[in-house]
Task: inverse folding
């Protein structure tokens, strides 16, 4: 079992930055692929970023590529999502997730554990 707790969300303006954190506890954190997803009102949950547990290889959705950076600190059992140049369309609840495979890391059903989410609101 893995417990995930996100933090760092808030209300910002267009062009601002935020860093989300996801603290993990439970089973061996370093062995999990970690993903970030988001869901805005009335829309389905969508993939944002993923980071592998060994090589720290990353994947990003096209909509955030070049603006968002995923990183992880296995010693602290924490994964981060640095979000720069935020836009109103980035407004959503952001979730981190843990899964045991890198395969299909862009799909939500590849993940076994989810955090409760943190709200990010970007005003224009």
Result:
């Amino acid at each position: 079992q893995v417990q995930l707790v996100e933090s760092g969300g808030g209300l910002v303006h267009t062009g601002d930055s935020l860093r989300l954190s996801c603290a993990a506890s439970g089973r061996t954190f370093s062995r999990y692929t970690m993903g970030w997803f988001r869901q805005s009102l009335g829309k389905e949950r969508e993939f944002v970023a993923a980071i592998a547990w060994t090589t720290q290889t990353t994947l990003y959705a096209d909509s955030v590529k070049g603006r968002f950076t995923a990183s992880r600190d296995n010693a602290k059992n924490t994964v981060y999502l640095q979000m720069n140049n935020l836009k109103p369309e980035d407004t959503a609840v952001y979730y981190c997730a843990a899964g045991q495979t890198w395969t299909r890391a862009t799909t939500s059903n590849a993940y076994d554990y989810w955090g409760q989410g943190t709200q990010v609101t970007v005003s224009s």
Notes: The mean pLDDT is 93. The CA atoms of residues 69 and 82 lie 5 Å apart.
